[in-house]
Amino acid sequence: MGTPFLQALRACLGDANVLVDGDMDAYEVDWRKRYRGRALAVARPASTAEVASVVRLCAAHAVPIVPQGGNTGLVGGGVPDASGRMLVLSLARMQQVRRVDPDNLTATVEAGCVLHALQAAADAHGLLFPLRLGSEGTCTIGGNLASNAGGTQVLRYGTARELCLGLEVVTAGGEVWDGLSGLRKDNTGYDLRDLFIGSEGTLGIITAATMKLHPRPGWTLTALAACPGIDAAIGLLRTARARLDAGLTGFEVIEGFALQLLARHFPQLRQPLHAPGWAVLLELAADDQASAERRLHAVLGDATARGLVTDAVVAGSLAQARELWQLRESIPLAQAREGLNIKHDIALPVSAIADFLREMDATLHTLVPGLRPVVYGHLGDGNLHFNLQAPQDMPAAVFLDRHEAALNQRVHDAVVARGGSFSAEHGIGALKAAELARRKSPVALAMMRAIRQALDPQGLLNPGRVLPPA
Amino acid sequence: MGTPFLQALRACLGDANVLVDGDMDAYEVDWRKRYRGRALAVARPASTAEVASVVRLCAAHAVPIVPQGGNTGLVGGGVPDASGRMLVLSLARMQQVRRVDPDNLTATVEAGCVLHALQAAADAHGLLFPLRLGSEGTCTIGGNLASNAGGTQVLRYGTARELCLGLEVVTAGGEVWDGLSGLRKDNTGYDLRDLFIGSEGTLGIITAATMKLHPRPGWTLTALAACPGIDAAIGLLRTARARLDAGLTGFEVIEGFALQLLARHFPQLRQPLHAPGWAVLLELAADDQASAERRLHAVLGDATARGLVTDAVVAGSLAQARELWQLRESIPLAQAREGLNIKHDIALPVSAIADFLREMDATLHTLVPGLRPVVYGHLGDGNLHFNLQAPQDMPAAVFLDRHEAALNQRVHDAVVARGGSFSAEHGIGALKAAELARRKSPVALAMMRAIRQALDPQGLLNPGRVLPPA
Known about the structure:
The structure is a homodimer.
Chain A: H1 4-13, E1 18-19, H2 25-28, E2 39-43, H3 48-61, E3 65-68, E4 86-90, E5 97-101, E6 106-110, H4 115-124, E7 127-128, H5 141-146, H6 154-157, E8 164-170, E9 176-179, H7 192-196, E10 205-212, E11 214-215, E12 219-227, H8 230-244, E13 248-255, H9 256-265, E14 278-286, H10 289-305, E15 311-314, H11 318-338, E16 341-342, E17 345-347, H12 353-367, E18 372-378, E19 383-389, H13 396-417, H14 433-439, H15 442-455
Parallel strand pairs in A: 2-4, 3-4
Antiparallel strand pairs in A: 1-2, 5-6, 6-10, 7-11, 8-9, 8-10, 12-14, 12-15, 13-14, 13-18, 16-19, 17-19, 18-19
């Protein structure tokens, strides 16, 4: 039954692993239900060889492919478009942890391995895989790499890119590139690995990866500090980095209004600080409890003496540390309960953040009086989630409809003028492809298009994502 | 006077910055005097705009270009070939430190900035630029990035690649790509930065870079430990990493015969250990002297109790630390005094190193009885300098002439069979282009060639280096 393409696909994967009807929402709709597409079919290969066969079939029949991992992306890069022509290539059955090498501090896993499973595999060897994301129970390593995921431990351990040593990739021509290196140093030719990382499935399909593991810290300590303003929070960051160096594993900020939203929608969450201008969540790793406490108190003492910190609580137990992190992690939900908002995932040089926020404070209200910014994020990485909630008396739908384009432009103008990024960790996908074409220099765009053309001349890998049609 | 090309070049840069005769050794011969080429001319632009003009002139006149920094490369990638057709494009006049941004922990420098000058600029702000190389007084940041330089601090801070946040590059078409990002996170399109890093001037010409700075450690402690064998040294590495984590900033090994060469050629260097099988140089960073000593003694005590370490000295002063490092840094000279040898700059998964050395021990002597391996390097990165000295009674010239090809093949076969690299940190250049074509998979080679063709369709950027003619 079906077209010659579908017949060949079934012959290759077996009927059970080619889905064409029934409820396909799990593959056609992103988890936030912002993108609803329609797939030609869903292919569920179980091995690298099967992925290569599927890609060769697609090349022969000119069928565009959207690779999909845990379908937790935020920019619509992992679901099909509305054309009904795209094949969803799900990596979900490729879940193996192929090897953990404790002496080399590496693990080789397949693309569909869920992030949490890799964390657990490292843990079983007394080691740490430090990528930490809200979606870690669902998202996959392949997707983490395709989107160069960030999260809350980037300050110390880097993004998915920096945690990856080697890749296995199926090329647009359906060949297998075995670049599964476990090497820290290898200067033999061009860096193909980093070209695939962050390319969101448009240059090749990641089927496996060798990831770095780290020693597990002896002791981790979490604190929440109140800072009177963003300048003070940046001063605290400077002090914490200088004194703790690599011991500083997290430095998150939450602006006062975001804390108010938490209080409104999650009153059961204990907020230990009294209405701070900004709250800073610090996480510190050290050899043992005593040295962790000594080092953290030195930082907080110094910062308090200099007026950077007005109040602080240090978690006295693992449960208390989890409570503090829960505040940070509940903000996305709290703002969702407050109503739809306009999101910006921006990065700036740390030295430009205060000035950026001052400009936003001075200008956005002139565009939409009463608009309410929700500001939080990874200050240590210069990465803020700068979201705009409708004025109290304006329905969210009206706010988005009338003001989203102008506000996006104003925010991104201010970001780019300071050397910043309009997509720090979420990627481009379908959502920001037009913005990328507008914002990137013609030189950069031309190079990206040339590379895309060189590696995928038929243009079948996730077309329309990252780079919009020329 | 001269060809239209040279006339145009002089009009662009001024007569004084276009060299065509006189003593051109400084540009035509590499510092070890292994590669002697002949240049059409040497161009010395002083700005990015001038570099772009020179490249456009070369494109118009089909003149191949070899970019050159401090001319300290080890693989002949920075000097012209013998054709007399290549233009040497020296970045030596582009030395500015454009900006140091302490809050963002970044410095933006021009490509011709000498590594030591960047170290000094960071130091002046109480910060650290951690790239550390023997050639740091001469080599330039542009060359460090073009070759993805490594050195002795990679274990903690990464290679040049990991220290770079953004680049400014003149493309093969003579356009300027301003990718000088100071961002830790930026997921807007393909990773062009990492494509240029390590491409040895074959994809574009790096004119400036934004590099990461780090907090300066409060205290640094150095020790030399005696290990009975390579397995013990790897056991010590495992223990040191687990206990010190990011506090371990260096882990170098020196095999016994290399120490004997030091004793023979540099008898004035004090060797504090008595004829160890392997010596391990450990460097540790910590908040202060007391915690550094406590942490290091815990590692050495544990390793001694388990028989991994049989003797150790801890430097009691900065001068003593320098003496220990001098042992490590004098090995290249000691082996040169012993006579020419066959060099291998290899990387392996740490877990494969002992097995590799056992195979070498068992097989190389059957090829050349009495051959003397000089083994040392960055064990923490899996990177060994595995060099082969002629048997005592064989002239080095005869040894190289008769046995170099077969020994290279045997060593690289054993490396590649274990997932290793035949060029860990020195790059490919002219020396290893043929080896790269032999050793890389056809899939990888085809992608590299496609990328080269996409970004430099005329093939004028450092032709013949990295990728040999197809």
